[in-house]
Amino acid sequence: MYDLRCLAVLLLVYLCSGASCTALDNRIGDEKEALQTRFNFFDADLLKELSKSNRGNFLVSPASIKTLLALVLEAADGSTFTEIRNLLRLSDNITDARMQLGDLQTALQRSVSSRVIVDCVAQAFVSKALVTNDTYTRIIKDYYDAEVNHQDFNQPQIVTNYINSWINTRTRGLIPTLLDQSFITRETYSILVSAVYFDGKWKKEFQRRNTRSRCFYPEPDVDCQLTPMMTKTEELFYRFDASLDAHVLQIPYQEERFFMVIVLPFKKDGIKQLDLDSSRLVFPALIQKMKLLEVNLTMPRFSIEFETKLSSVLQEMGLNEVFSPKAKLPYIFNNKQGKISAMIHKAVMEVTEKGTKAAAGSGASVVPLMHGLDSISLELNRPFYYFVCEADTQAILFMGRLSTMEETGDQERAGPGPDSTLESLQSNNQLTTSSNQRVPPQPANKPNLQINPTAHVSHGALNYPYDPAQSSSTTRRRQRVF
């Protein structure tokens, strides 16, 4: 038995017309959406497991992990194949399953503007000493655009350096080293690798001159962590998810089929409950029924590097046989069985004023928070979840949780400004009007209300700003600050 290590068309023609064709198209579309939603449950399961096992920041690429598991799936047979397929929530039909897994590569390989660069690649590094199965080679090429690369595994240092160089090139230097010198053993005959690279500029960039040091609170009773906070005002898709008690915000990149989704707990200590509910952060349901609003957004500039022993995470999710002597992986080589002895995953992300760079190797009803709001202010000054997504496939390229700024390396890097000292930050926790009158702090876990000194209207016990320059006599412009 060899040692396998991993780093994270049927055409039917119908003759129909009118309503019958429309009904057929709708049914096929509904079935495809249902399959994709089921497929995305893997991402939610993965997110829940990571939130349980990591107290601080974490970042992974579901796209990279799924691509890696696709290469393992094609090598598997029997109960091992079934276990991987069930984990990924794939269709029972192997052709449909392959198309589900391969659609992301197809979508990402489409040409995009030079302002958004995306690369999703995979490679099977195999031993020259064994004969590779031609069917396996053809399938991973046809469906996942993955190549078989023959190496001399009797020279582990050379192979390690070669694979690290390949990863470094495909991630544009964001991940210069994935494997250490001990990763390849004498029993290793194959290493399966996948990598995803993303470099996207915001549709509307944050202005660097507006970035100021402000407080980020990992927990309500934890001292302020001074953090460079970026600020901009933009029309964005937003909704409040009552079942999650959280704000959901969508921030587009210049290629608008790519976007970042922010899930910010409403309560200051809401991340704990959101961690418990993380398995419900499923796409595309999470971003449905959103409303276009003017958003005054303040969010931290940060960078994260995260590495995890992926095999342990997947075992907690129910993938066990593939790591055991009972594994059935007969299809990479002719007449050679194997098992997976190690699986690792490494991801890096930088979020700045210009955009996002990232790389990785490896029914409750929904209601708006307040009907009739025209604008809101959101400050991401407490832990939140984030996702980088692709619209056509509803796939998540990267996802993670930002819990603390101590691990990001971005503290105290913002330029000077009115909020650049802790003293001014603490004083600014109380709102002021343009006449500099102090407004008492709002009760804990309640959103602050920003009052326009020109005029305001009353709505029950709450006050909303009213701007006569932008509203008719029958329209009240409403804004909430969170």
From TrEMBL:
<keyword id="KW-0732">Signal</keyword>
<keyword id="KW-0722">Serine protease inhibitor</keyword>
<dbReference type="InterPro" id="IPR023796">
    <property type="entry name" value="Serpin_dom"/>
</dbReference>
<keyword id="KW-0646">Protease inhibitor</keyword>
<feature type="domain" description="Serpin">
    <location>
        <begin position="44"/>
        <end position="405"/>
    </location>
</feature>
<feature type="signal peptide">
    <location>
        <begin position="1"/>
        <end position="21"/>
    </location>
</feature>
<dbReference type="InterPro" id="IPR036186">
    <property type="entry name" value="Serpin_sf"/>
</dbReference>
<dbReference type="GO" id="GO:0004867">
    <property type="term" value="F:serine-type endopeptidase inhibitor activity"/>
</dbReference>
<protein>
    <recommendedName>
        <fullName>Serpin domain-containing protein</fullName>
    </recommendedName>
</protein>
<dbReference type="GO" id="GO:0005615">
    <property type="term" value="C:extracellular space"/>
</dbReference>
<dbReference type="Pfam" id="PF00079">
    <property type="entry name" value="Serpin"/>
</dbReference>
<feature type="region of interest" description="Disordered">
    <location>
        <begin position="430"/>
        <end position="482"/>
    </location>
</feature>
<feature type="compositionally biased region" description="Polar residues">
    <location>
        <begin position="430"/>
        <end position="455"/>
    </location>
</feature>
<comment type="similarity">
    <text>Belongs to the serpin family.</text>
</comment>
<dbReference type="InterPro" id="IPR042178">
    <property type="entry name" value="Serpin_sf_1"/>
</dbReference>
<dbReference type="InterPro" id="IPR042185">
    <property type="entry name" value="Serpin_sf_2"/>
</dbReference>
<dbReference type="InterPro" id="IPR000215">
    <property type="entry name" value="Serpin_fam"/>
</dbReference>
<dbReference type="InterPro" id="IPR023795">
    <property type="entry name" value="Serpin_CS"/>
</dbReference>
